[in-house]
Amino acid sequence: MSLMQEDPDLAPWRGLGETLAGSFAARGRGSLIRAPEFAIQGREGGRIGRLEIYGPEGAELRSGDLQARIERSAPACYTMLAGGTKILAAGAVGSLSTPEIRCSGRLYQGRLSLLRNTAEASQAGDEPKVRITGGLTNRNYEAVFDAGDLGSLPVAFFLLYLTVALRREAYLTGARRS
What does the buried/exposed string (b/e) look like for 63-88 if buried means 16 or more CB atoms within 10 Å of the residue's CB? Predict the structure, then answer.
C-alpha cells in the first residue's frame, strides 16, 4: 500500500482523481505576465478547481477540500505540500526540463519540451503515466494521467505548473532583451 493510500490527509487527492477520471483541462485566466490563474475543468467542462502560478517561486492549487502548495525549496528543487504533508519532491537531473519527481513512494522521470509546450512523466522503463499538452499561447492545457496510479495526479499538476512557469520565464526574459 502506498503512502498516499495510507495517509488520511491525502483523501482529497483520491476524491479529485475519481472526479477527474484520468484527465483534466486547464484554461488560463488573467494576465500571464503577472500571476496567471488557470481554471481546472473536468471532462464535461465544469470548473472543479484553480491553479494560481506565482512564477518560479511556486503555485497554489485549490479544488474542493484539496489545497496544495508548490514551493521552490532550492534553485532547481521543488516540493508540493497538501494538508501540511510533503507529498511530492522534485529536482533537476541536468536541467529543469528533465526533473526527477518523487511522489507516493514512487520515482517518476519527467521530460518537458518548452518549444512544443508538452511534458510527460513515467516510471523507469514504463509508458508515460502523465502527459501534458498546451497551446501556443500558454493559456490552454490538456492533462492525461493514470487514474489507477494515485501519485500521477499530483505529478500532473506539478508538470503543468513547471511547464507554465518555465515558458513564462523564457517569454519574460526574451521580452526584457528586446
Answer: beebebebebeeeeebbbebbeeebb
To the nearest whole number, what is the mean pLDDT of the chain?
88
For residue 124, which phi and psi values (nearest 5 degrees)? Answer: -50, 120
The total number of structural domains in the chain stands at: 1
> In this structure, what C-alpha cell is assigned to residue 102?
518523487
d(CA 116, CA 134): 8
Residue 21, domain extent: 3-177
The pLDDT tens digits for 95-139 are 889 999 999 889 999 999 999 999 999 998 889 999 999 998 888
Q: Are 3 and 104 in contact (CB under 8 A)?
A: yes
pLDDT at 83: 84
Listing DSSP states for 109-139 in one string gives EEEEETTTTEEEEE-TTSPPSEEEEE-TTSS
Residue 163 in grid coordinates = 511547464
What CATH number is attached to the domain comprising 27? 2.40.160
H or E element that contains 171: helix 152-177
Report strand pairing: 23-29 vs 37-41. antiparallel
